[in-house]
Amino acid sequence: MSAAEKKVLIVGGGLAGLACALRLHETGARPLIFEGSDGVGGRVRTDHLDGFLLDRGFQVFLDAYPEAGELLDKESLDLRAFRPGALMHKTSGMRRVMDVFREPRHLMESALAPVGSFADKLRVARLRWRLTRLTTEEIAGHEDMTTESYLQRAGFSASMIDGFFRSFYGGIFLERELQTSSRMFEFTFKMFSQGSATLPARGMGEIPRQLASRLPPGAIRLGAQVTQIQPGSITLESGEQFHGDAVVVATDATTAAGLVSAGGTVGPVWRSVTCLYFAAARSPLDESIIALNGTGSGLVNNVCVPSDLAPEYAPRGQALVSVSVRGTVDPDDLESRVLAELEAWFGGAVREWRHLRTYRIGRALPRQSPGTGFTGPGFRKEAGVYLCGDHIWSASIEGAIISGLRTADAILKPS
Question: Model-level pTM?
Fold first, then answer.
Protein backbone atom coordinates (compact mmCIF):
# COMPACT_ATOMS: atom_id res chain seq x y z
CA MET A 1 0.00 0.00 0.00
CA SER A 2 1.38 3.43 -0.93
CA ALA A 3 1.58 6.27 1.58
CA ALA A 4 -1.22 8.11 -0.26
CA GLU A 5 -3.57 5.19 0.38
CA LYS A 6 -2.99 5.00 4.12
CA LYS A 7 -5.66 6.34 6.45
CA VAL A 8 -4.29 6.86 9.95
CA LEU A 9 -6.47 7.47 13.02
CA ILE A 10 -4.70 9.57 15.67
CA VAL A 11 -6.09 9.81 19.19
CA GLY A 12 -4.98 13.09 20.79
CA GLY A 13 -4.37 16.55 19.34
CA GLY A 14 -1.36 17.52 21.42
CA LEU A 15 2.06 18.25 19.95
CA ALA A 16 2.91 14.58 19.32
CA GLY A 17 -0.36 13.90 17.52
CA LEU A 18 -0.12 17.08 15.46
CA ALA A 19 3.49 16.40 14.45
CA CYS A 20 2.58 12.85 13.47
CA ALA A 21 -0.41 14.02 11.43
CA LEU A 22 1.59 16.75 9.68
CA ARG A 23 4.37 14.35 8.63
CA LEU A 24 1.76 11.89 7.34
CA HIS A 25 -0.12 14.61 5.45
CA GLU A 26 3.02 16.01 3.84
CA THR A 27 3.89 12.57 2.47
CA GLY A 28 0.43 11.96 1.03
CA ALA A 29 -1.24 9.88 3.75
CA ARG A 30 -4.65 10.74 5.22
CA PRO A 31 -4.45 11.45 8.97
CA LEU A 32 -7.54 12.07 11.09
CA ILE A 33 -7.08 13.43 14.63
CA PHE A 34 -9.64 12.81 17.38
CA GLU A 35 -9.25 15.32 20.22
CA GLY A 36 -11.52 15.02 23.24
CA SER A 37 -11.24 18.65 24.38
CA ASP A 38 -12.33 21.88 22.69
CA GLY A 39 -8.92 22.72 21.19
CA VAL A 40 -5.57 21.37 20.07
CA GLY A 41 -2.33 21.55 22.05
CA GLY A 42 -2.80 19.15 24.95
CA ARG A 43 -0.79 20.67 27.80
CA VAL A 44 0.40 23.54 25.56
CA ARG A 45 -2.53 25.96 25.41
CA THR A 46 -3.21 29.64 26.01
CA ASP A 47 -6.38 31.21 27.43
CA HIS A 48 -7.63 34.77 26.88
CA LEU A 49 -8.90 36.70 29.90
CA ASP A 50 -9.66 40.44 30.06
CA GLY A 51 -7.04 41.19 27.42
CA PHE A 52 -4.36 38.98 29.04
CA LEU A 53 -2.83 35.85 27.50
CA LEU A 54 -2.57 33.10 30.11
CA ASP A 55 -0.52 30.05 29.19
CA ARG A 56 -1.83 26.99 31.00
CA GLY A 57 1.17 26.77 33.27
CA PHE A 58 4.41 28.66 32.75
CA GLN A 59 6.26 27.05 29.84
CA VAL A 60 8.99 28.13 27.44
CA PHE A 61 10.08 27.09 23.97
CA LEU A 62 13.83 26.55 23.62
CA ASP A 63 14.70 27.92 20.19
CA ALA A 64 17.70 25.58 19.90
CA TYR A 65 15.43 22.50 19.72
CA PRO A 66 16.64 20.92 16.45
CA GLU A 67 13.63 18.93 15.21
CA ALA A 68 10.93 21.19 16.63
CA GLY A 69 12.78 24.15 15.16
CA GLU A 70 12.88 22.52 11.74
CA LEU A 71 9.19 21.57 11.80
CA LEU A 72 7.91 24.94 13.02
CA ASP A 73 7.99 28.30 11.26
CA LYS A 74 9.80 30.07 14.09
CA GLU A 75 9.70 33.43 12.34
CA SER A 76 5.90 33.50 12.22
CA LEU A 77 5.75 32.49 15.90
CA ASP A 78 7.52 35.80 16.61
CA LEU A 79 9.56 34.30 19.44
CA ARG A 80 10.64 36.65 22.24
CA ALA A 81 13.69 35.60 24.23
CA PHE A 82 14.43 35.66 27.94
CA ARG A 83 17.85 37.03 28.85
CA PRO A 84 20.38 34.21 29.39
CA GLY A 85 20.56 34.01 33.16
CA ALA A 86 18.41 34.57 36.21
CA LEU A 87 17.81 36.76 39.21
CA MET A 88 18.15 34.86 42.47
CA HIS A 89 16.12 35.99 45.46
CA LYS A 90 18.30 35.50 48.54
CA THR A 91 17.64 36.64 52.09
CA SER A 92 20.14 39.42 51.39
CA GLY A 93 18.25 40.58 48.31
CA MET A 94 18.24 39.92 44.56
CA ARG A 95 21.44 38.62 42.99
CA ARG A 96 22.13 38.30 39.27
CA VAL A 97 23.66 35.17 37.71
CA MET A 98 24.09 35.47 33.93
CA ASP A 99 25.52 33.41 31.09
CA VAL A 100 28.67 35.48 30.81
CA PHE A 101 29.53 33.93 27.44
CA ARG A 102 26.60 35.84 25.97
CA GLU A 103 26.49 38.73 28.43
CA PRO A 104 30.17 39.31 29.31
CA ARG A 105 29.39 42.71 30.86
CA HIS A 106 27.95 40.81 33.83
CA LEU A 107 31.13 38.77 34.34
CA MET A 108 32.18 40.36 37.62
CA GLU A 109 28.66 40.66 39.02
CA SER A 110 27.94 36.99 38.28
CA ALA A 111 31.34 35.83 39.52
CA LEU A 112 30.89 37.66 42.82
CA ALA A 113 27.23 36.72 43.34
CA PRO A 114 26.80 34.66 46.54
CA VAL A 115 25.57 31.63 44.59
CA GLY A 116 28.12 28.83 44.80
CA SER A 117 31.86 29.43 44.71
CA PHE A 118 34.08 30.85 41.99
CA ALA A 119 35.26 27.27 41.34
CA ASP A 120 31.61 26.25 40.83
CA LYS A 121 31.25 28.92 38.17
CA LEU A 122 34.33 27.62 36.40
CA ARG A 123 32.76 24.14 36.49
CA VAL A 124 29.62 25.58 34.83
CA ALA A 125 31.83 27.01 32.07
CA ARG A 126 33.56 23.67 31.54
CA LEU A 127 30.22 21.85 31.48
CA ARG A 128 28.90 24.31 28.92
CA TRP A 129 31.99 23.88 26.74
CA ARG A 130 31.73 20.09 26.84
CA LEU A 131 27.97 19.68 26.27
CA THR A 132 27.68 22.16 23.41
CA ARG A 133 30.13 19.98 21.48
CA LEU A 134 28.06 16.82 21.86
CA THR A 135 25.15 15.66 19.73
CA THR A 136 21.86 14.58 21.27
CA GLU A 137 22.66 11.03 20.15
CA GLU A 138 25.94 11.14 22.05
CA ILE A 139 24.16 12.40 25.18
CA ALA A 140 21.60 9.58 24.81
CA GLY A 141 24.48 7.09 25.01
CA HIS A 142 25.84 8.44 28.31
CA GLU A 143 25.60 6.63 31.61
CA ASP A 144 22.35 7.72 33.24
CA MET A 145 21.90 8.68 36.88
CA THR A 146 20.00 11.26 38.89
CA THR A 147 20.85 14.87 38.14
CA GLU A 148 21.84 15.32 41.78
CA SER A 149 24.40 12.49 41.52
CA TYR A 150 25.63 13.86 38.21
CA LEU A 151 26.26 17.32 39.64
CA GLN A 152 27.97 15.88 42.71
CA ARG A 153 30.20 13.70 40.52
CA ALA A 154 31.05 16.81 38.44
CA GLY A 155 32.40 18.42 41.63
CA PHE A 156 29.75 21.07 42.26
CA SER A 157 29.48 22.18 45.87
CA ALA A 158 26.39 21.65 47.98
CA SER A 159 25.85 25.41 48.08
CA MET A 160 25.81 25.59 44.25
CA ILE A 161 23.51 22.60 43.91
CA ASP A 162 21.16 23.85 46.63
CA GLY A 163 21.39 27.55 45.83
CA PHE A 164 21.14 27.45 42.03
CA PHE A 165 20.47 24.10 40.38
CA ARG A 166 17.58 23.12 42.66
CA SER A 167 15.91 26.49 42.01
CA PHE A 168 16.56 26.73 38.27
CA TYR A 169 15.84 23.11 37.42
CA GLY A 170 13.03 23.00 39.95
CA GLY A 171 11.09 25.07 37.44
CA ILE A 172 12.10 22.85 34.50
CA PHE A 173 11.81 19.40 36.05
CA LEU A 174 9.13 20.49 38.56
CA GLU A 175 11.06 18.89 41.41
CA ARG A 176 13.83 20.24 43.64
CA GLU A 177 15.22 16.85 44.59
CA LEU A 178 16.98 16.60 41.19
CA GLN A 179 15.97 12.98 40.74
CA THR A 180 15.39 13.50 37.01
CA SER A 181 17.59 11.67 34.48
CA SER A 182 21.03 13.21 34.00
CA ARG A 183 20.61 12.68 30.26
CA MET A 184 17.64 15.03 30.41
CA PHE A 185 19.73 17.50 32.40
CA GLU A 186 22.55 17.36 29.83
CA PHE A 187 20.11 17.80 26.95
CA THR A 188 18.36 20.82 28.46
CA PHE A 189 21.64 22.37 29.61
CA LYS A 190 22.93 22.05 26.03
CA MET A 191 19.74 23.66 24.65
CA PHE A 192 19.94 26.58 27.09
CA SER A 193 23.61 27.06 26.20
CA GLN A 194 23.05 27.05 22.45
CA GLY A 195 19.90 29.13 22.30
CA SER A 196 17.32 31.00 24.32
CA ALA A 197 14.23 30.27 26.35
CA THR A 198 11.46 32.01 24.45
CA LEU A 199 7.74 32.74 24.36
CA PRO A 200 5.73 33.18 21.16
CA ALA A 201 4.43 36.75 21.12
CA ARG A 202 0.80 35.55 21.12
CA GLY A 203 1.22 32.78 23.66
CA MET A 204 2.47 29.20 23.80
CA GLY A 205 -0.80 28.06 22.22
CA GLU A 206 0.46 29.45 18.92
CA ILE A 207 2.76 26.42 18.58
CA PRO A 208 0.00 23.80 18.24
CA ARG A 209 -2.23 26.23 16.34
CA GLN A 210 0.48 26.67 13.71
CA LEU A 211 0.83 22.91 13.26
CA ALA A 212 -2.94 22.46 13.05
CA SER A 213 -3.24 25.21 10.43
CA ARG A 214 -1.04 23.20 8.07
CA LEU A 215 -3.39 20.20 8.07
CA PRO A 216 -6.23 19.92 5.54
CA PRO A 217 -9.80 20.91 6.47
CA GLY A 218 -11.57 18.13 8.34
CA ALA A 219 -8.35 16.51 9.58
CA ILE A 220 -9.12 17.37 13.23
CA ARG A 221 -12.29 16.48 15.11
CA LEU A 222 -12.66 18.34 18.41
CA GLY A 223 -14.88 17.15 21.25
CA ALA A 224 -14.38 13.60 19.98
CA GLN A 225 -13.88 11.47 23.08
CA VAL A 226 -12.44 8.06 22.23
CA THR A 227 -13.60 5.25 24.51
CA GLN A 228 -12.32 2.13 22.77
CA ILE A 229 -9.37 1.27 20.55
CA GLN A 230 -8.72 -1.80 18.45
CA PRO A 231 -6.06 -2.40 15.78
CA GLY A 232 -7.42 -0.50 12.78
CA SER A 233 -10.45 1.06 14.49
CA ILE A 234 -11.63 3.40 17.24
CA THR A 235 -14.99 3.99 18.91
CA LEU A 236 -16.18 7.37 20.17
CA GLU A 237 -18.25 8.06 23.25
CA SER A 238 -21.18 8.66 20.89
CA GLY A 239 -20.87 5.09 19.61
CA GLU A 240 -19.57 6.21 16.21
CA GLN A 241 -16.83 3.97 14.79
CA PHE A 242 -13.96 4.80 12.46
CA HIS A 243 -11.65 2.45 10.60
CA GLY A 244 -8.15 3.02 9.26
CA ASP A 245 -4.94 1.34 8.24
CA ALA A 246 -3.19 2.32 11.49
CA VAL A 247 -4.11 3.74 14.89
CA VAL A 248 -1.86 6.10 16.86
CA VAL A 249 -2.43 6.89 20.53
CA ALA A 250 -0.82 10.29 21.07
CA THR A 251 -2.38 11.09 24.43
CA ASP A 252 -0.55 11.46 27.72
CA ALA A 253 0.61 8.16 29.19
CA THR A 254 -2.12 7.91 31.83
CA THR A 255 -4.85 8.28 29.23
CA ALA A 256 -3.04 5.86 26.92
CA ALA A 257 -2.86 3.28 29.71
CA GLY A 258 -6.63 3.46 30.03
CA LEU A 259 -7.20 3.02 26.30
CA VAL A 260 -4.65 0.40 25.32
CA SER A 261 -5.10 -2.99 26.99
CA ALA A 262 -1.44 -4.02 27.01
CA GLY A 263 0.69 -4.87 29.99
CA GLY A 264 3.52 -2.59 28.89
CA THR A 265 1.50 0.62 28.93
CA VAL A 266 1.70 2.00 32.46
CA GLY A 267 0.82 5.55 33.39
CA PRO A 268 3.79 7.56 34.71
CA VAL A 269 4.27 9.32 38.00
CA TRP A 270 3.47 12.92 37.18
CA ARG A 271 5.21 16.11 38.19
CA SER A 272 2.64 18.75 39.04
CA VAL A 273 2.66 22.53 39.26
CA THR A 274 0.45 25.41 40.31
CA CYS A 275 0.66 28.58 38.24
CA LEU A 276 -0.80 31.85 39.47
CA TYR A 277 -1.32 34.92 37.30
CA PHE A 278 -1.60 38.48 38.56
CA ALA A 279 -2.22 41.83 36.88
CA ALA A 280 0.08 44.63 38.01
CA ALA A 281 0.29 48.33 37.22
CA ARG A 282 3.94 47.82 36.35
CA SER A 283 6.39 44.96 36.10
CA PRO A 284 8.28 44.06 39.28
CA LEU A 285 11.25 43.02 37.12
CA ASP A 286 11.27 45.49 34.20
CA GLU A 287 13.34 43.11 32.09
CA SER A 288 12.87 39.80 30.27
CA ILE A 289 14.35 37.54 32.88
CA ILE A 290 13.25 34.83 35.30
CA ALA A 291 13.51 35.39 39.05
CA LEU A 292 14.20 32.29 41.14
CA ASN A 293 13.74 31.52 44.81
CA GLY A 294 17.26 30.93 46.09
CA THR A 295 16.39 30.78 49.79
CA GLY A 296 15.46 27.08 49.86
CA SER A 297 12.17 27.83 51.63
CA GLY A 298 8.72 29.19 50.80
CA LEU A 299 6.04 28.33 48.28
CA VAL A 300 7.26 30.24 45.24
CA ASN A 301 9.73 28.61 42.87
CA ASN A 302 10.00 31.23 40.15
CA VAL A 303 8.49 34.49 38.91
CA CYS A 304 8.49 36.04 35.46
CA VAL A 305 6.62 38.78 33.64
CA PRO A 306 5.64 37.52 30.15
CA SER A 307 4.58 41.03 29.13
CA ASP A 308 8.19 42.18 29.63
CA LEU A 309 9.10 39.92 26.69
CA ALA A 310 5.93 40.33 24.67
CA PRO A 311 3.63 43.29 25.42
CA GLU A 312 0.89 41.30 23.65
CA TYR A 313 0.51 39.23 26.85
CA ALA A 314 -1.16 42.13 28.68
CA PRO A 315 -3.42 45.11 27.92
CA ARG A 316 -1.71 48.45 27.39
CA GLY A 317 -0.57 49.98 30.66
CA GLN A 318 -0.62 46.70 32.61
CA ALA A 319 1.84 43.89 33.32
CA LEU A 320 1.18 40.16 33.56
CA VAL A 321 3.01 38.43 36.41
CA SER A 322 3.41 34.63 36.35
CA VAL A 323 4.22 32.78 39.59
CA SER A 324 5.02 29.07 39.71
CA VAL A 325 4.64 26.83 42.76
CA ARG A 326 5.69 23.19 42.53
CA GLY A 327 2.90 20.71 43.15
CA THR A 328 -0.85 21.20 43.12
CA VAL A 329 -1.03 23.35 46.25
CA ASP A 330 -4.62 23.88 47.32
CA PRO A 331 -5.04 25.93 50.52
CA ASP A 332 -7.92 28.42 50.48
CA ASP A 333 -5.51 31.26 51.14
CA LEU A 334 -2.92 30.28 48.49
CA GLU A 335 -3.10 33.59 46.60
CA SER A 336 -2.70 35.69 49.75
CA ARG A 337 0.17 33.52 51.00
CA VAL A 338 2.00 33.82 47.68
CA LEU A 339 1.54 37.59 47.64
CA ALA A 340 2.80 37.87 51.22
CA GLU A 341 5.89 35.89 50.24
CA LEU A 342 6.51 38.03 47.16
CA GLU A 343 6.28 41.22 49.19
CA ALA A 344 9.70 40.26 50.58
CA TRP A 345 10.93 40.03 46.99
CA PHE A 346 9.42 43.16 45.48
CA GLY A 347 8.10 45.38 48.26
CA GLY A 348 4.70 46.81 49.11
CA ALA A 349 3.58 47.31 45.48
CA VAL A 350 2.70 43.60 45.47
CA ARG A 351 -0.33 44.39 47.65
CA GLU A 352 -1.88 46.18 44.67
CA TRP A 353 -1.66 43.19 42.32
CA ARG A 354 -4.96 41.71 41.11
CA HIS A 355 -5.34 37.95 40.99
CA LEU A 356 -6.43 36.78 37.54
CA ARG A 357 -6.46 32.98 37.60
CA THR A 358 -4.79 29.98 39.22
CA TYR A 359 -4.04 26.79 37.28
CA ARG A 360 -3.49 23.60 39.27
CA ILE A 361 -1.97 21.15 36.80
CA GLY A 362 -1.69 17.63 38.17
CA ARG A 363 -0.38 16.13 34.93
CA ALA A 364 2.15 18.81 34.05
CA LEU A 365 5.21 16.71 33.21
CA PRO A 366 5.82 12.95 33.15
CA ARG A 367 8.58 11.98 35.53
CA GLN A 368 11.76 11.09 33.62
CA SER A 369 13.82 8.90 35.91
CA PRO A 370 17.30 7.59 35.12
CA GLY A 371 17.15 4.88 32.48
CA THR A 372 14.05 6.28 30.78
CA GLY A 373 13.90 8.56 27.76
CA PHE A 374 16.32 9.00 24.86
CA THR A 375 16.12 5.25 24.24
CA GLY A 376 14.50 3.11 21.57
CA PRO A 377 12.93 4.35 18.33
CA GLY A 378 10.88 7.14 19.95
CA PHE A 379 7.56 5.28 19.85
CA ARG A 380 6.10 1.95 20.93
CA LYS A 381 3.74 -0.49 19.30
CA GLU A 382 1.48 -2.38 21.66
CA ALA A 383 -1.69 -4.39 21.09
CA GLY A 384 -1.51 -3.51 17.39
CA VAL A 385 -1.47 0.28 17.85
CA TYR A 386 1.29 2.90 17.91
CA LEU A 387 1.96 4.98 21.02
CA CYS A 388 3.83 8.28 20.99
CA GLY A 389 4.31 11.32 23.19
CA ASP A 390 6.75 13.11 25.46
CA HIS A 391 6.56 10.23 27.96
CA ILE A 392 8.27 7.96 25.42
CA TRP A 393 11.25 9.99 24.15
CA SER A 394 11.85 12.96 26.47
CA ALA A 395 9.63 15.07 28.71
CA SER A 396 9.79 18.20 26.57
CA ILE A 397 8.25 19.91 23.56
CA GLU A 398 11.11 18.55 21.49
CA GLY A 399 10.47 15.05 22.84
CA ALA A 400 6.77 15.16 21.93
CA ILE A 401 7.49 16.34 18.39
CA ILE A 402 10.30 13.82 17.82
CA SER A 403 8.06 11.00 19.00
CA GLY A 404 5.24 12.07 16.69
CA LEU A 405 7.52 12.39 13.67
CA ARG A 406 9.19 9.02 14.24
CA THR A 407 5.81 7.33 14.65
CA ALA A 408 4.70 8.73 11.29
CA ASP A 409 7.95 7.54 9.67
CA ALA A 410 7.38 4.03 11.03
CA ILE A 411 3.84 3.95 9.61
CA LEU A 412 5.04 5.20 6.23
CA LYS A 413 7.87 2.69 6.01
CA PRO A 414 7.12 0.12 3.30
CA SER A 415 6.10 -3.20 4.82
Answer: 0.94
> Would you identify the CATH topology of the domain 3-44+205-268+371-412?
FAD/NAD(P)-binding domain (3.50.50)
Sign, Cα dihedral of 16, 142, 185, 132: negative
Count of alpha carbons within 13 angstroms of residue 323, beta-carbon side: 33
Strand ranges of the sheet holding 354-366, from the earlier edge strand across to the other edge:
93-98, 85-90, 290-293, 300-304, 319-326, 270-280, 354-366
CB contact at 8 A, 107 and 100: yes
- Tell me how far apart the alpha carbons of residues 257 and 368 are, in angstroms, rounded to a whole number: 17
Three-state SS string over 385-409 comes to: EEECCCCCCCCCHHHHHHHHHHHHH
Instruction: Tell which wins on pLDDT, 108 or 98.
Output: 98
Say what percent of the chain tops pLDDT 90: 77
Give the pLDDT of residue 92: 81
Give me the CATH code for the 46-65+72-81+198-203+270-366 domain, please.
Answer: 3.90.660.20
Whether 399 has a pLDDT exceeding 80, the answer reads: yes
pLDDT band at 1 (very low <50, low <70, confident <90, very high): low
- Cβ neighbours of residue 108 closer than 8 Å, sequence gap 6 or more: none
* DSSP for 11-72, written as a single string: E--SHHHHHHHHHHHHTT-EEEEEESSSSS-TT--EEEETTEEEESS---EETT-HHHHHHS
CA distances from 60 to 65, 101, 195, 261, 328 (A): 12, 21, 12, 34, 20
Going from N- to C-terminal start, the domains of the chain cover: 3-44+205-268+371-412, 46-65+72-81+198-203+270-366, 116-195
